[in-house]
Specification:
Layout (H helix, E strand, L loop, with lengths): L41 H13 L6 E6 L8 H9 L6 E6 L11 H4 L10 E3 L5 H5 L4 H14 L12 H40 L8 H24 L12 H19 L4 H16 L9 H13 L2 H22 L7 H35 L11 H11 L9 E9 L10 E8 L3 E4 L6
Helix pairs in contact: 7-8, 7-11, 8-11, 9-10, 10-12, 11-12
């Protein structure tokens, strides 16, 4: 069964004398763990789809949260908070009030005290699956809902502001108010677009398509405009900033700073397995000998194996960036829609160039990782090696002599030495810059 998602909307019109004139967009809920044939990045895809709608300033957000879950962990309210931090466009809807644990209620939430929203919260009680299977109709469900709010001691004082009928009225009123508030800005935006189109039409008044000189000039102007638009979408621009959706450059930035770390975090890391690999590496390097110190080769073998794992997320990030560049090209060629062949050819040439650079980019990324794998620099401040420990110690204890600097001390058990009676035995070791000493106990006698 197909459990994936699609950005193509399903338009459903409901005609009834009992419904209000509203347009609702039902977005999918956040899926944390992929199921069935869902892709591994299903959570990221759903989040991107939701963001495409709720980032629009003229959109009201209906954040639906079950009452039997922690409101602070609500995915709907969390996403709404990101795009509407002041809660000006968000309407909270609390469901499943009848399924809360005995002795608990959502009174503080519904009274807008816990997580305040300018437009407040509305509580509803929907039909359960048992009610649906039992053919319980909507009218009976709404009567049961009304009875619940009137009889519940925590909600009876606000019963007139709860329930599905009140939610309908609130949505209708809020939509009317929102249209009234946003209409002036919307009108100004339309007027600006109209002036821009009229200016563009004016430029074509004296255009003669049969004149080769004008053809060449017009072609160069359109290609130059395409290049300018593409650069603005990728590099960013202070003029005519798009407030409805993220530009190509912003999405690429998100891939670098959100998606790439997300892919790295997703990589399987089994600490128990890693410890086993480290143990095997150390033992295999020592062979038949019993080593005293951890060999560098064991450390490098394990580290190199972890670095190589970065290839997968890195190449996937390249694929995502390439796709975003191609999407940006398609958006920039929309201005060439009046010239279909030019639009198609421009898109083809630029997309092919991007695809050609894709292979070289991936080669460069793999080369960079191979460079990191080829040499592990343990003489770095991130590693507390002998030389670094000596340097740090000299900075802290400038007045002491180098020979007396203690780099590390602690218990060390020596095992598998035949000349020692009793098998393994623990000693207190002291490592300085010039010597390694061991004692019977930590009193160093």
């Amino acid at each position: 069964m197909n459990k994936g998602i699609s950005s193509i909307p399903i338009n459903l019109r409901v005609y009834s004398p009992h419904v209000l004139n509203l347009t609702l967009i039902d977005l999918p809920g956040i899926t944390k763990v992929p199921v069935g044939d869902q892709p591994p990045d299903i959570e990221y895809q759903i989040r991107e789809m939701i963001m495409q709608f709720i980032t629009r300033e003229n959109c009201l957000i209906l954040a639906v949260t079950p009452a039997n879950t922690d409101l602070a962990n609500s995915d709907a309210l969390k996403l709404a908070k990101e795009v509407d931090p002041q809660g000006l466009r968000t309407i909270g809807v609390i469901t499943k009030l009848d399924l809360m644990d005995e002795g608990t209620d959502a009174r503080d939430v519904l009274e807008n005290k816990l997580l305040p929203l300018r437009r407040g919260y509305v509580g509803v009680v929907n039909r359960s699956q048992k009610d649906i299977d039992g053919k319980k109709d909507i009218k009976s469900a709404m009567l049961a809902e009304r009875k619940f709010f009137l009889s519940h001691p925590a909600y009876r004082h606000i019963a007139d502001r709860m329930g599905t009928p009140h939610l309908q009225k609130v949505l209708n009123q809020q939509l009317t108010n929102h249209i009234r508030d946003t209409l002036p800005n919307f009108r100004n935006k339309l007027q600006g677009q109209l002036l821009s189109i009229e200016h563009e039409v004016e430029a074509y008044k004296n255009f003669k398509p049969e004149d080769p000189t004008r053809k060449t000039k017009a072609l160069l102007q359109m290609v130059q405009q395409f290049a300018v638009d593409f650069e603005k979408r990728i590099e960013g621009s202070g003029d005519q900033v798009d407030t409805l959706e993220l530009s190509g450059g912003a999405k690429i930035n998100r891939i670098f700073h959100e998606r790439f770390p997300f892919e790295i975090v997703k990589m399987e890391f089994n600490e128990k397995e890693l410890r086993r690999e480290i143990s095997y590496a150390i033992k295999n390097i020592h062979g038949i000998r019993t080593g005293l110190f951890t060999p560098d080769m064991a450390f490098e073998a394990i580290v190199k194996k972890q670095i190589v794992k970065l290839k997968g997320p890195s190449l996937k990030s390249v694929d995502l960036v390439i796709q975003e560049l191609i999407n940006t090209v398609k958006k920039c060629t929309k201005k060439l829609a009046n010239f279909p062949r030019l639009c198609e050819e421009t898109e083809r040439i630029v997309a092919n160039h991007i695809r050609e650079r894709e292979g070289k980019t991936k080669d460069q990324v793999l080369l960079l990782i191979d460079i990191q794998v080829s040499y592990i620099n343990t003489n770095h401040e991130d590693f507390i090696g002998f030389a670094n420990a000596q340097q740090r110690s000299s900075q802290v204890h400038k007045k002491t002599t180098i020979g007396n600097q203690v780099i590390r001390k602690g218990w060390l058990t020596i095992s598998n030495i035949g000349i020692m009676k009793g098998g393994s035995k623990g000693y207190w070791f002291v490592l300085t810059a010039e010597s390694l000493s061991w004692y019977k106990d930590d009193e160093e006698k």
